[in-house]
Design a protein that fits this description.
- It is built from six helices and no strands.
- It is mainly α.
- The chain is about 85% helix and about 0% strand.
- The longest helix is centred in the middle third of the chain and has 103 residues.
- The relative contact order is 0.09.
- It comes from Halomonas shengliensis.
Length: about 325
Amino acid sequence: MSHASDTSGAGAPIRYEQVAAAAENLEHRGAEPTLHRVLELLGGGSPHLVQRHLGAWRDARPAPEPTPARLPESLLEALERELARRGEAGLAEGRRLAEEARADATTLAESGEGLERRNAELESRLALVERESREAREQRDALRAERDTLRDDLEQERQLARQAQEELIQQRQQVALLREQLEEAQQARLTAERETRAVEEERVKAERAQAVAESQRDGALEQAREKAEQIGQLKREMQEERARQRQEVTEMRAEQKARLDAVERAKQEAQKQAQEAAQRATKAEIRAEALQATQNALKSRMDAMQVQQRQRGMRSPGERD
């Protein structure tokens, strides 16, 4: 396509390089380089000539890669319907412009070079509308594919959440079991203490019996001597019993400590899994914010297309006259 300079009426010629620089300036500022904005930035000029240079600038640029968007399913469906509606409207506008171009082609053939330029401009506008309509359909298809991906991701997140819930229930059951075992150990310790007190009472009784025997040793020395041996044997048995009970208490305390340590480890593991679930939720929120930003960018582009189409509709009657 030729980028030669043209003139419009009595004004200075608008060159392709000026239009390209203005469009790139608008893009750097985050604005869509529409015909209205380019004319404002240039301070005027022929809309026909600027539109032709702007179309040439767009054709010379590589097609942008569609940015994958992650939107909520309800918003995807609403956006899909809106894109379809606007795509159909853009296609209808393109067909209308094509009819105008065909109707004007007969007149242009009779009106000379000026009307030929108008026909070329209308063809460029038609190509632009068709290209934007095609891009809208491609974006709609990309959004549908992204919606399906989001559904799969959501189902996977739900499965992970269910697994985490099941693991948490199992851990709670283990904690309850450990608590029951702890209570049993405490009950066993109380039983051992009661038995120890009973043995101590027996020892006291034995000592009392020994005292009675000693008071009666003048009459029954041999009996007292035998009783003393029995008491000695009982003491040895009592000492052995105490040692055994102390060993059992020590072992029960060690077992109780091990169970408490296991309960603490299970509690820490449950807290860790809860934190990981919270992190996954935070990532999902970040993806939702990115999807919202993409939605806003798409809406801005569609609004710019509507403004551009309204401007073309407002100019068409005067240009045909």
